[in-house]
């Protein structure tokens, strides 16, 4: 099966939305980032700066457009999102 080069839009032309395939729910975003679903919920509640607010809600759950999440892997700080806890050793 060959594609007609005239039927493929050039890269500079925006491609129309893919419908539901264009949406990321918490589970799909967690899979993309390699974390648990609960981790995404915690990040949302803590409002980590690199995670954009959801674009909407679907069936009661947060959803983002794929375009909103472009580059999220680069913006995400490695490790825990908050400051590290200070560990104090008890006096001997």
TrEMBL record:
Xref: InterPro entries: DNA-bd_dom_put_sf (IPR009061)
Renumbered residue ranges of the record's region Disordered: 70-92
Protein name according to UniProt: Uncharacterized protein
């Amino acid at each position: 099966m060959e594609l007609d080069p005239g039927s493929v839009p050039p890269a500079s032309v925006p491609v129309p939305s893919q419908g539901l395939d264009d949406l990321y729910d918490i589970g799909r975003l967690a899979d993309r980032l390699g974390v648990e679903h609960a981790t995404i919920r915690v990040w949302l509640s803590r409002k980590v700066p690199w995670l954009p607010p959801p674009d909407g809600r679907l069936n009661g759950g947060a959803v983002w457009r794929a375009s909103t999440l472009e580059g999220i892997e680069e913006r995400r700080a490695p490790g825990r999102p908050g400051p590290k806890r200070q560990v104090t050793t008890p006096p001997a």
